[in-house]
Amino acid sequence: MLDSFYGSGSGKEGCRKNNQMLMFVLVLFSVIPVSVLAQEPWTLEDSIQRAVEIAPEARAAEAVVRVREGALKQAGVWPNPQIELRIDDSMSKDEGGSGTDFTQFAFSQPLPLNGRLGHQRHVAGAQLDAARSQRLYQQVRLETQVAQRYHSLQLATERLRLAGLRLQLADALRDAGRQRERAGELSRLERLRLDLIRESAQQILDRSEGKANEALSRFRTYLGLTFEAAETELQLTPLTPFDAIPALAQLQASLSQHPAVLAVRQQLEAAQAEIKLVRAERIPDPTLSLFRERDSLNGHRQNVNGIGVGFTLPIWDRSSGRISAARAQVVQIQSELQVLTRDLSGRLQQSHLHLSHLVQQGRHYRSRVFEPAQQVFDLTRKAYASGEVEILSLIDANNTYFDARERYLELLQEAWQEAAELRLAAGHRFKND
Fold first, then answer.
1. Does the CA dihedral 216-217-221-227 come out positive or negative?
2. Strand pairing report for 82-88 and 101-110
């Protein structure tokens, strides 16, 4: 098909036609964008929404919140009363008969007067707040994992498309070289070099296709996505430069509101309230009892009403061990909070520095390497079409251009990956600006 496209001319006229056709193909490739997307590409926001819907981590974090909500509801409930009924034959025996009768009815109610219900609510409320903060942190972590997989798939897809363009251009160069060899305008050595370039491009395409399929399979499995059997590629948004880097001072100022920090701080509040709860429970709840008894006196039955109060004497168990354990837990959580704050601050600074470096490197590479390589490629194409340079110069410019373009894509992907890490270190949710 390409033979009919290039024609079968010979001599100077054939050479001119071949150069014109090759020039047309090269110009055509230069205007084709790397990412030819569908009208509605699958975005990172779509991926995050899908992950939140199906991820077991999200369901587990939500279940913990529901558990804590139930515990808070239960924390303020009074203990249940106790009713006692007694049936015996004591009155019948006193009266010289037989049978059984109700002889006693008692109602007992523990009275939580030591303030433990308030402390229980405080503990349960702090644990609920910690679970909610942990749920938010789990969402941030989930978004980071989705973003990393999404950007990896973006790079693999862009590499595959770039490898396809490289192969198409190599095919065009090889076929044009064969035409010129038959016309006696190209040596067999140069034509063999073009064949090697074409086979090298094929190998790059095969390798890129394998990596893209692997990345797509991992992405689809992670999100539980299913597609029609005929669909082999998921259309994504293109890789673009990352420019909007928030100020480090602003991120550090909001670090105290990091959901992981809030979760540990609320766990500390619950542990401190636990100490107060244990102290309050050292004094057991008194029990108020109301009773009514029936008895037989001098052959006459009579009712006796009464009221009583019961106390448990805290002689043997004074909860000293529980108080010591609760205090030790407070110290443990305080230490964990200090470690977490230190680590998050270090990760935040490192991630911000790395992202700034990647963005700056991307800009520098685009202006100093990628764009000059593209200009050299364009000028070399024109010079080759006019017969000013040899085919090897075009091949070298072609390889330099595609290598520079691929490296630029890698820098873009690395910047977006680091941006996801920066959001995680700062505890910020993804926002589609």
1. positive
2. antiparallel
The answer to whether residues 376 and 404 touch, using CB atoms and an 8 Å cutoff, is: no
281-335 tens-digit pLDDT: 888 888 888 888 877 666 677 788 889 888 887 777 667 888 899 999 999 999 9
Q: Order across the sheet with 287-297: list the strands.
A: 82-88, 101-110, 287-297, 300-310
pLDDT tops 70 at residue 6: no
- How far apart CA 121 and CA 262 sit, in angstroms, is 19
Percentage with pLDDT > 90 across the chain: 47
Is 55:142 a contact under the CB 8 Å cutoff? yes
- Counting other chains too, the contacts that 295-301 makes at CB distance below 8 Å and 24 or more residues apart are 295/90, 295/91, 295/103, 296/90, 296/91, 296/94, 296/95, 299/94, 299/95, 301/91
How many domains does the chain contain in total? 1
pLDDT at 25: 44
- pTM recorded for the entire structure: 0.78
Quick check: 199 and 205 in contact, CB under 8 A? Answer: no
Determine, yes or no, domain membership for 313.
no
pLDDT tens, residue by residue, 140-195? 999 999 999 999 999 999 999 999 999 998 888 788 778 777 877 767 777 788 88
Residue 93 has a CB neighbour count (10 Å cut-off) of 12
d(CA 31, CA 23): 13
DSSP state string for 138-173: HHHHHHHHHHHHHHHHHHHHHHHHHHHHHHHHHHHH
Q: What pLDDT does residue 37 have?
A: 37
Residue type, 336: E
Which among 126, 131, 132, 124 has a CA at the least distance from the CA of 75? 124
- Among candidates 430, 385, 428, which has minimal Cα distance to 137? 428
- The answer to whether residue 42 sits within a structural domain is yes
* Domain CATH number, residue 189: 1.20.1600.10
How far CA 143 is from CA of 41, 132, 140, 146, 331, in Å, comes to: 19, 17, 5, 5, 32
Residue 150 dihedral angles phi and psi, to the nearest 5°: -65, -45
Reading phi first (left if > 0) and then psi (alpha if -120 to 50, else beta), residue 233 is in: beta
Q: Is residue 105 part of a domain?
A: no
Give residue 34's domain range: 2-77+115-264+340-426
Lowest mean pLDDT among 34-43, 45-54, 351-360, 415-424: 34-43
pLDDT at 33 (0 to 100): 40
Query: What is the DSSP pairing of strand 101-110 with strand 287-297?
Result: antiparallel
Is position 6 within any domain? yes
